[in-house]
Design a protein that fits this description.
Radius of gyration: 17 Å
Order of helices and strands: HEEEEHEEHEHEHEH
Structural class: alpha/beta
Largest sheet: 5 strands, mixed, barrel
Bound molecules: hypoxanthine
Distance between the termini: 34 Å
Number of helices: 6
Shape: globular
Strand order of the largest sheet: 5-8-7-6-9
Strand content: 15-25%
């Protein structure tokens, strides 16, 4: 083991490929809160292992995050890697563990990274709870970056337009929006939600942006999809809770699974 995150990702990729018995992966998906039940629709499982069997991964800290990585073969023959849960910045273990899965997937050959999350909707006038929204861009208010030093990565098209077009071919009703990321773990205050709306945000959450940046740094293309699990704090006057987030995920799993499997089938 080493402290170099890229070396650790290379080590994890080698361990992963040998545990699964494949030479390379085509795509990796990160299943956020509420998305894990949708994973079953993506393909036939080749192998599933606890992430902690691989160098550099931490045990899961969040209920509803399974801490496993699954390799599947899709109907079209694509080999996909599915992270059933992720590490968040608010766990306080630094940035490297947050992006280790994405870096490992890229080192294991994945040229496309699909990042899913649960999010608060900032536009309840047009968004419905249980709706999937394509991430068109982000505002990173987490205060962190996975990159240290003068590596000036271009983020003009962090969420690849071609992949968004492809997702809309699968489901023309998909809306797009700007995802605003806070560090968490508190949900936002109503004043922060109002600020995000003024800044041009459409969804708010606690993940995804650091992984998207790491993926772009690593040369992969990114598709981001938020599942709107609640209106942002203060927009409808009800308190927020994690159980509600997971419940919306369970209720929409079949629909989200079909969406993901069709999108992955087109890659
Ligand atoms: N805010 C932040 N993260 C979230 C939310 C929210 O309203 N809903 C689900 N994840």
């Amino acid at each position: 083991m080493t402290d170099d995150p890229y070396a650790l990702a290379t080590e994890a990729a080698t361990a992963l490929k040998s545990a699964v018995g494949v030479d390379s992966f085509d795509v990796a998906l990160v299943m956020g809160s509420g998305w894990v039940p949708a994973a079953d629709a993506i393909g036939e499982t080749i192998a599933e292992i606890p992430v902690t069997d691989l160098p550099g991964f931490l045990p899961p800290a969040v209920a509803g995050h399974a801490g496993k990585v699954r390799a599947v073969r899709t109907e079209s023959g694509t080999i996909a890697l599915i992270f059933l849960g992720r590490t968040h910045l608010y766990e306080g273990r630094g940035v490297d563990p947050v992006v280790h899965g994405v870096r490992t997937a890229i080192k294991a050959g994945a040229g496309t990274i699909v990042l899913t999350n649960a999010a608060g909707g900032l536009r309840p006038e047009t968004q419905k709870v249980g709706e999937a929204v394509l991430i068109s861009d982000h505002i990173n208010l987490s205060g962190a970056s996975p990159i240290t030093g003068p590596t000036f990565v271009d983020l003009t098209d962090v969420y690849t337009p071609r992949l968004r077009d492809l997702a809309r071919e699968v489901d023309p009703s998909l809306a797009e929006g700007v995802y605003v990321a806070f560090r968490g773990p508190t949900y936002e205050t109503p004043a922060e939600v109002r600020m995000c709306r003024i800044l041009g945000g459409d969804m708010v959450g606690m993940s995804t942006v650091l992984e998207a940046i790491a993926a772009r740094e690593g040369g992969a293309e990114v598709l981001g999809i938020s599942l709107v699990t609640n209106p942002g704090a203060g927009l409808v006057g009800e308190p927020l809770n994690h159980a509600e987030v997971l419940e919306v995920g369970r209720a929409t799993a079949a629909r989200m699974g079909v969406l993901l499997s069709k999108v992955v089938g087109k890659l």
